[in-house]
Every structure is written in C-alpha cells, then in structure tokens.
Amino acid sequence: MHRAWQGRIAALALTCLLAAPATVAIAAGGGTLRYGITVVPPTYGNPYGGNGTPGTLIWYALFDALTRLDDEGHLAPALALRWEAVSPTEWHFELRPGVRFSNGRVADAEAVAATFEWLGSEAGRRTVIGNELRNVTRVEVRGPRTLAFHTGRPDAALPARLAAVLIVEPASWAELGPAGFAKQPVGTGPFALVDWGERDKRAVLRANPDSWRAPRLDRLEFRVMPDNAVRLQALVAGEIDLSDAAVDDLPYLRARGLRSANAPAMQVMSIALITGTGQPSPLSDPRVRRALNHAVDKQVIADKLLGGLGRPAGQPASHVTVGYDPQLLPYRHDPALARRLLSEAGYADGFELDIDVVVTSAGGDGAIYQVVQQDLNDVGVRTTLHARTFGDWLRNYLSGAWKADAFGLSWNSAPYNDVTRPMEYFSCRKRNPFFCDPVLADRLETVNEEFDPERRAALLRELSRAYREAAPAIFLVETVDVFAMDAGVGGFKIANRVPVYEDLLWTRPSR
Questions:
Q1: What is the DSSP string of 89-135?
Q2: How far is residue 486's CA from residue 236's CA, in Å, rounded to a whole number?
Q3: CA 196, CA 44: separation in Å to the nearest integer?
Q4: Is 34 within a domain?
Q5: Residues 413, 321: Cα–Cα separation, whole Å
Q6: Residues 373-413 pLDDT 10s
Q7: pTM for this one?
Q8: By the 8 A CB rule, do 272 and 434 touch?
Q9: Domain ends where: 122, 156, 189?
Q10: CATH code for the domain of 408
Q11: Beta carbons of 190 and 61 less than 8 angstroms apart
Q12: Is the dihedral of CA 86, 427, 134, 113 positive or negative?
C-alpha cells in the first residue's frame, strides 16, 4: 500500500475511534410532547422516498443510520461505533453492540446489510436514497458486528453519506413490502409508531425505552397543521408544545412567554433552472441564468424576511458546510446588469418563466418566492409561481417530468453536511437530471476520490466557484431552522435540522 495512503487511512481511523462516545441510557417517563408539523411524510414510514424535512421530522424518531450529525454539525457514531478505510474502495464499519429493533429483533450486521441489499436492487435504486448510493457496489458481512462496504470508485465522504441511510427491520420490510412497511415501520430509534392518525391528523409514537438512545418522554405526538398561522395559535393556546416558526413570528411568541431556538440549516435556498430537457429554452444560456441571479435582491430577503438570521447566498454551500468558500461573494443585486445580460443573450424583451414551488416547507418561503417573482418581473422576466404539494413536487423531482421551467430546490447538505450532496443532484449524476454539465460532473468525481482533508476542501472551493459561474439555480439565501416551544419543553437541541428526540423533556405535570 502506498505510504501516503496508509497515513490518510490511519488518520481517518483514529478520528473515528476518538469520536465514539459512551452510551448513557435514560429511562422514559416524561409525559407527552405535542409537535405541530405541516404534513406527514408522503411515504409515511418508508424512509427512502426523501432525504430531508418533512420526512426526517418523524423518521429520526423511528430510525437510526450508521452515522449521524451531532448538534454542532460534526459526524458522530450512531449504529456504527467506528469505521476506517482499508483501501481506496473499501470501508469497514463496526456496529454498536446490543442494539435491537423496536419489535425485539437484533440489529446485527446481517440485519443492517439487508437494507443496503434492497437499496441496491432495481426498485431501491429508483428511490432518492438508493440513487445516492449508486457507487456502493457491495456490502459484505464480515462478522456479527462488522460490515465491509465496497465502492466502484473511491468515496472519501462515504461515512458521512451513510448518515442518510436509515436502517429498517429486514423481516418486517420483506414481509410487508415497502408500502406495507410504510404504515407499520420498525426501527431502532427512541420511539415506535402507535398510529399514523390519518383520521384525526395526529401521528402518535410511544417511547422505545430499549433503544440505545432511550427517550425521556412517554409519548410523542405529531399534529398535522399545514397552515403556519394555525400552528402559531395552537402554540399560544397550549394545544401543541413545539413547532417550527417563521422569523417574523418570534416577537409575538416571546411576548406570550414562549421560547425559541434556531440553527443554521446547512442549506442554501434556490430556484433550480431546468436546462437538461434538450428543448430550446432561454435558461440554456448561462448569461440568462446569471442575469436572473443579478435580478434578485438577496440582501432584502435575508434582512427583512429572515430577520438577519439568514445570509445572502451565491454558492452551493452554507457557511457551516464543508466546501464553503468565504471568498466567494453572492451575485450583487444589479437589475441594470441583469437587463444587459438578457439583451446580450437575445432576450431584450424578456420571456415567460413558470416556477413550481412548495410553500410552508420552510419559514417565510411564501414571502421569499413573492420577492423573487417581483424582482424577476422588474427586469422583464414575466414570472408565474405555481404552488405544488410536496408529494407532487417529489414525484416530478424523481421522474424529471416538470411542466414548469424552474422549481424551488435548496442546496441541502443535510444529512451529512458536505456540499457534494447537493452538487450531485445539480449534476449529470442525478437520475433524470434537470441540469447536466459533464465537466462539472467529472470534477465532482475527482473531489469524491480525494481523501486528504485539506486537498479535498480546496477542490470543493474550486468546484463551488465553477458552480457559481454555471449558475444552475438562482441562489437566494442560507436558511435557518427556527423552532418555538412552550416553556415546559426541556432538553431541546437541534441536530441535522431536527430536534434531538431522545433528549426532549416535558417539565410540567404529565397530561
């Protein structure tokens, strides 16, 4: 083995060994906490149909992955205690001992490997998560607690990438199939499903005290309230205890004795510009795409709509994400330059632009899209917004069957806080790509093959500059996750954009 490669592997192995914390079990018994959410996941308890909220709001209570992000955004052990790269294309993972699924079955290497076997199948590859694992060629069981992952090409980010893969109980998955399992999910998380509450819009979870991250609550209820104003009033009235919140709601909530918490979302909000259909489009010209970026006033969005908690964005990574380049400034707001670029591209009179968006998926997103629409209209790009449900949006995203010219899509580096993740779905590597630049895709492969952390970071910064120039999206703002809660909620922390469920407490008398 090459000496430099040996040094890199030794450093990686040492880092992972030091990262493994001691496990402390905390008994359940802390009452019921009621969490107001916009919608249950479209795929219910099937965690492979998406990779972010709203799904993870519930999935992270039910399931675990091999790795996870802690509340500071650092990669940490989960079902795997430690890992190491033994060659450029092989990683070994050692599992946590004594873990069981909520139905009592053992979560050993055979059980975990079954998840990856299904995700590698034809059906699995069609899912969001399966598509992200296409470089994993084989997962080999090397012992009761040891797995060997083989990749087609070197992948320095594999341990972080696996934070997205939530492990399901294999016997239930095989018996029920994906659709049946979705209604009766079984995982190793701190809670287990009681009822999806399709009649009363109330998904109920019970404590799983045998989980390796045993909860401090007895029950967790997710109450579906699509409208932000309804959730706000329910929180004030004491009908729910916890909810996401918009920045401009915080003064009102605090005046009524409610608390709040926020954290950077590891995400850059954007409008994805569809160029990969093969059909003639103004968006095929990079001058047009840059013009749209210059047209939108991102500073106003950050200051006025996000209360200064967000930041104007001009690159794929947020400032807390691996790959962020602090020297790379956002496109300046310059409507005159936008009009000049449009004229140079042959669109002096502008053009029609249809954008599909999902509103209420993030705080203030409806108002943000309205600012985008107005700013684009002001430079002659006659913009129409089409509100879609998340389910419709997801089907179009997976199939590529967009009828619009653009759609709301964030550069979401969660759940492993590495910018290669959103870069991959803004690339030829995505199944049914909407933007495909072969040069950028090749450079992305090069980054993934670089195991030296400093060299990899430098390559990512260079690639971020290239993505900024290519402008496959209208970069908007770095978003922030904001939560509001009753004063009786204790132990609240945010990790990977979701509350740390095992730490939550209800400090008032049990309901």
A1: TEEEEEEPTT-B-TTS-B--HHHHHHHHHHHTSHHHHTSHHHHHTTT
A2: 8
A3: 8
A4: yes
A5: 7
A6: 999 999 999 999 999 988 888 889 888 889 999 999 999 88
A7: 0.80
A8: yes
A9: 189
A10: 3.10.105.10
A11: yes
A12: positive
